[in-house]
Amino acid sequence: MSEEEPRSTTDVIEPPEKKVGLVKAVGILGIIGGVLLIVVGVIAWIGVTNQLTAENITIPDDAAAFQGQQVTGPFTAYVQADIINHHALEASGGKTYAELDQDDPVRATVMQASFLRASLFTSIVAYGVALFAAGMGVLAILFGWAIHRLASVPVVIRRSNVY
């Protein structure tokens, strides 16, 4: 009888058969795009804050929170919009703009309150969009890094040699 040769396994590191340069480039583009999204988000946040601060709006003492503080961010803008609504409803006897008669003299005040609230809510939405852009930038960086990293990993081929 003849003796069988033992089976041996060897690991060989080989370059990939397909070029991964484009995949690496996509990863780097994802990182660059993510950085740009974060920068744009921060710039938008600062721009909205500067515009709100320039209005010199002070939250009244009867507001739910932040009494006496200046409106400079999304939370203070929300509280200010809420107290404007409270004051408008108080002035109109609990009626909204649409519920008031067209010749009611309070209607102009309620309309102005509605416009102010809409402007404040627009700034709140702008803050949300800025935060969303920055958050998507972080995700783009993480995905870009992962794609680039995976494309850079060497390929290990396990071959089984039978003798």
Explain what this protein looks like in three dimensions:
The structure is a single chain. By secondary structure, this protein is mainly alpha-helical. 60% of the residues lie in helices and 9% in strands. The chain has a two-stranded antiparallel ribbon.
Q: C-alpha Rg, in Å? A: 31 Å
User: What's the average pLDDT?
Assistant: 88
**How far apart are the first and last residues' alpha carbons, in Å?**
16 Å
Work out the number of β strands: 2
- Note the run of SSEs as H and E: EHHHE
User: Runs with pLDDT <50, length 5+?
Assistant: none
Question: Main traits of this protein?
Answer:
163 residues; 2 strands; mainly alpha; two-stranded antiparallel sheet
